[in-house]
Structures are given as structure tokens and as C-alpha cells.
Design brief:
Elements lengths: L7 H45 L16 H11 E8 L2 E4 L8 H9 L6 E8 L2 E11 L4 E8 L5 E8 L13 H4 L8 E2 L2 E2 L3 E3 L14 E3 L5 H27 L2
Parallel strand pairs: 9-10
Antiparallel strand pairs: 1-2, 1-3, 3-4, 4-5, 5-6, 7-8
Helix pairs in contact: 1-2
Length: about 250
């Protein structure tokens, strides 16, 4: 019996079969690649945390070079001496605190749960670093990063990234010339926690002044810069009780 390839029934059956075949292939690929994807995400988080505390392979003023994936697990164990999880008044050590999903924790907190806040303590050349993860919203979608503080709550480094900021504008939050400006800035003003503002109108474009709680904004990326400012301030507010205990010791 000949098949009428011009009939509506044939078209519907062919399309349905194609959807089933393609869907099955995609489901198989997603399942089989899931472990590799999870591993890549784990290594990337470790790279970003280390980058914020100055453990990287930068060789010039413009490059952003992370610790290679074949070395990052060892370096993470070497430089990150403790991982803490803050839940209200309770602070516990957890060797996998870096795997905590901030977005999920923020959603849980909105629904009344106690938010789990990961915090990483690093040591390098006898100096202690407190690395705080951050999550916020830019112009188009999510932005995130890490800020590293010393005992005086002075920034020792940052790392920022984004999901969908404008190419050549807001997307440049992960470039050296922007991130390096934060190093040396204090998050305090007259003893109060104020964060760091990404300022469009800034009288210090070379960022030589380190006690003004400001860095120069990216050209054409005002909303993304505002998102960075809000993200830092919101994150510091969450971690303020712990940071105050650090400040009190110094």
C-alpha cells in the first residue's frame, strides 16, 4: 500500500516521530553529560573563589587567567583553609559550602526559610582572606561574583560575571580594568558598613582614592553598575554580623 506523503495525517505522524526521536536524543545527551557539566561548574566556582583572593595566573595588566582546571582542586585545598555556612546565629564548617546555590537560598529565604550563607576563609603568605559570594541582577539578567576582604575589611580582590549583559558594555564587569579598581577599597565609612558604589559621576577615574567607597562606572553600563553596587551592599548586609566580629578583633 502506497503512503500518501502529501496527506495531513502523514505530515502529523512524521512531525510527531521526529519530535520523539530528537527529544530522546537530547534527553540522553543531557543525562549522559550531567556529571561532566556538574564537574565543570564545581571547578569554575573554585577558580572564581581563588581569583577573588588573588590566586590566579595573570601575567599582564589585561588578562584574566584562572588557575587551570587540572590544578584548581589542589590549590583550592591549599589556599581555602575553612568553608563556613552561616544560618542565623549558627555557624558551621562544611567542606562543600562552595556548592551552595545562592539563588535557591534567596528564594527559600523569601518563603520564610533560614538562608544558608557560605563564606570562605583563605590564607596566602600568612595573610587571611574572607571571601563572600554575591548574587544580584544587572540590566538583562543575573550577575554574580565574589569579594575578598582582609582583617580590616579592605577589599583584596573581586570577581564578577554575568548571564546576559550587553556585549562590550555591561558584559565588561568581568574584565581586569574594572575588577582591579575594587582592590584596596574599604567597605566602611566612618566605621559604618556602606559597601562600594559604582559611580557614573566620579572625580577619581584612575581610582587613586581608596577611602571614598567608589569605583568608576563602565561607560554605557549604568544599570549594570547599579546592579553591582546593590549586589555588594545587599551581600554585606547579610554577612554583617560575621564581618562585625572580624572587625572587632582588629
Amino acid at each position: 500500500m502506497a503512503v500518501n506523503r502529501d496527506s495531513n495525517a502523514y505530515t502529523v505522524l512524521f512531525a510527531a516521530g521526529l519530535v520523539i526521536v530528537v527529544g530522546s536524543i537530547l534527553a540522553y545527551l543531557a543525562f549522559s553529560l550531567a556529571p561532566a557539566i556538574a564537574e565543570n561548574m564545581r571547578l569554575e566556582k573554585q577558580q572564581n573563589i581563588l581569583y577573588a583572593m588573588g590566586v590566579n595566573e595573570n601575567v599582564d595588566e589585561g588578562s584574566v587567567n584562572f588557575v587551570p582546571t587540572d590544578k584548581v582542586a589542589d590549590d583550592f585545598k591549599k589556599y581555602i583553609v575553612d568553608q563556613l555556612v552561616i544560618e542565623g546565629d549558627k555557624i558551621t564548617s562544611n567542606k562543600e559550602a562552595y556548592l551552595i546555590d545562592l539563588k535557591k537560598e534567596m528564594t527559600a529565604a523569601k518563603n520564610g526559610a533560614v538562608q544558608k550563607l557560605p563564606l570562605f576563609i583563605g590564607e596566602k603568605k600568612g595573610k587571611k582572606f574572607y571571601i563572600i559570594p554575591m548574587y544580584g541582577v544587572g540590566l538583562w539578567d543575573a550577575i554574580w561574583g565574589f569579594v575578598s576582604l582582609d582583617d580590616t575589611l579592605t577589599v583584596q580582590g573581586v570577581f564578577f560575571d554575568h548571564k546576559a549583559e550587553t556585549p562590550g558594555l555591561g558584559s565588561n564587569i568581568n574584565q581586569r580594568y574594572f575588577m582591579d579598581d575594587f582592590t584596596g577599597e574599604t567597605i566602611l565609612k566612618d566605621g559604618n558598613f556602606v559597601g562600594i558604589n559604582v559611580a557614573k559621576v566620579n572625580n577619581d577615574p584612575k581610582n587613586n582614592i581608596k577611602d571614598d567607597n567608589e569605583v568608576d562606572a563602565l561607560a554605557g553600563a549604568t544599570i549594570t553598575g547599579d546592579g553591582i553596587s546593590a549586589m555588594i551592599k545587599k551581600s554585606l548586609k547579610l554577612y554583617r554580623p560575621y564581618l562585625e566580629s572580624v572587625k572587632a578583633k582588629n
